Amino acid sequence: MLGEGGERSFSTNINYLIEEYGIMVNNDAVVRTHYYKYFHPKECLVSNGVVHGCVPARLGLKNYDSLNQCLSFVYPFGATLNTAKPAVAVLSTGSVSLPLARPVCAFATAKNGEPFPSAGRIAVIGSGHVFTDHYIDKEDNLSVANLVFDFLTAEDFVLDPVDAKEIEVKYSKGGVADTAGFAERLRCCLLETTEELPTDTGVLFNSPLYSLDLGDIVPDIVRAYDILNLKHEPLGLIPPEFNIPLPRLKMAVYPPVFRDPADPPLELFDLEEEFSDDQNQLAEAANRSLTTVGKTTETVAQVEEFIDTCASILGLAGASTPGEGRKNPFDVLYEVAAEISEFKKNLNKHE
């Protein structure tokens, strides 16, 4: 099993082996003449390519109009074969593929001593893609695989020489014109010209039209080095400098997530003292002072502490602040007396 291009594309000499059996793979490709079911031009759907009577006999095909149309198969990316005795062509390209009616599958059987020393069988198909996973389920390719395996393994598979003689396979090759080359050299029709044609038609071809002659330009280029004061040396390679711009900064889609502050250590605070009103706090301060007065000799200091505590509870200006020493209690009492006097003065005005 080879493919399009034959030995030239696969770098092998398989023809050296199989030509002794009368089979040779050509260095060509099979293409279809029109589109049908498969997109690629080299995926050829052959519907009338059966050329040997063993195909319907071994596959059990009965309901068919003609022998060559009893089996349809896809022949993708394949080449054609040349066959000679003792080989027998089994499948061909049919009438809708190019080249026309060329063998694509051939069988050969050798007997002991005629012409080979040991018996054996060989089956050659010009496309290995026929039996791949992509094409084995297409059309009747699975039947073609069963036919090949049946020929190689079944001892009762005998190629009928009568069928081989009745099959006519065309081996003629037709050349294809270089359409691309002609398209680049358009010429008007000679029948439409009014000029007399010369006897020698070779003078009508303009060969310098596609020539490239630098003989007159090179000396001027060499002299240009001296005029421009440049060294006559090969140009050096300038190392490229790639500028990689930094992307513009963009704001984050989501704002940053900060950690929540820790919960206050409530066990370190006296909540009743912190949330009680001024009257309750003054009552508690008075009770603490009354329980300690008379028990110690520092009565004056206790009274000063009581006055300072009451000033802090009431928020008086004369109260001491943390980090400072205790202020003069007389200033606190003076401020209290001034507030009371101001209150009574305003009360008398309203009455």
List keywords for this structure.
4-stranded mixed sheet, 11 helices, two-stranded antiparallel ribbon, 351 residues, alpha+beta
Spell the H/E element sequence: HHEEEHEEEEEEEHHHHHHHH
Shape: elongated
Mean pLDDT rating: 79
Rg estimate, integer Å = 56 Å
Structure summary, number of beta strands: 10
Query: Main β-sheet: number of strands, strand sense, barrel status?
Result: 4 strands, mixed
Low-confidence stretches: none
Percentage of residues in strands? 5-15%
The tally of helices reads 11
End-to-end gap: 128 Å
Structure class:
alpha+beta
Question: What's the helical proportion of residues?
Answer: 25-40%
Pfam families: IFT52_central, IFT52_GIFT
Domain IFT52 central: 183-264
Protein name: Intraflagellar transport protein 52
Domain IFT52 GIFT: 1-164
Describe the fold and architecture.
With 351 residues, the protein is of the alpha+beta class. Among the domains are: 161 residues, no CATH class; 83 residues, no CATH class. The protein is built from 11 helices and 10 strands. The strands form 4 sheets. Strands 6, 8, 9 and 10 form a 4-stranded mixed β-sheet that branches. It has a two-stranded antiparallel ribbon with strand order 1-5. The longest helix is centred in the last third of the chain and has 22 residues. It is elongated, with a radius of gyration of 56 Å. The protein starts with 5 loop residues before the first helix and ends with a helix. It comes from Ranatra chinensis. This is Intraflagellar transport protein 52. InterPro entries: IFT52 (IPR039975), IFT52_central (IPR055460), IFT52_GIFT (IPR055458).
